[in-house]
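User: My instructor asked us to take a sequence, write out its structure as tokens, and then describe one feature of it. I'm not sure where to start. Here is the sequence I was given:
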Amino acid sequence: MIRKISRWIWKAMLWFFGLSILSVILFKWVPIPFTPLMITRIIEFKLDGDDAIYSHKWVPLEQISPSLQKAVIASEDGNFLKHSGFDFKAMQKAFKNNNKGRRLKGGSTISQQTAKNVFLWQGRSYVRKGLEAYFTVLIELIWGKERIMEVYLNSIEMGNGVYGAQEAARHWYRKPAKNLTSREAAGIAAILPNPRKFKATNSSSYIDRRKDKIMRVMRQIGKIDY
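Assistant: Let's start with the prediction itself. The structure tokens for your sequence are:
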């Protein structure tokens, strides 16, 4: 019985590693049509008795304003172009702040967020964090920074039922993502901590302050070289 269980576990692990690596290789070139979060949100709308809101359109990175690329780096992951998937200093800082009882903050990089959004479920658990680290290593090795940014900006939630830069730009500013100004890009990046609660336009004073801070950091980034 123990041998059978051991063989089953071994085979399951081989299948998992094989399929996970193949999926990462596939998505290096193939647009990602939907993510687990998108499905979860649709189910939540249905359970609440509301019409499901789903707005998503994939566009290549060349059709997304460099200002938005700078804005998410400025707001979410200042060392994105330098680290190999994990920003240990940011993680340590977040851990200290959380232990002091301050507003809960995560130390997740754009790479980690992308791995979670595309391949995993939401929530907090050691199992999910372990898998997140595994997929983060894979996409850093196989995709590279430019593809990670492209997937990230096409997949993340940027409004209530709004996913990806193209639909976010149309939803908030009535224009395509490639035409976003620096201020507009900062507006979208500013709401990413909670895009279902905050608004990129007609913003609260808190979001306006975040926009100003993001724009200051954006000016220091310079040209993005993937």
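For the description part of your assignment, you could build on this observation: Residues 2-26 form the longest helix (25 residues). Try explaining in your own words what that tells you about the chain.
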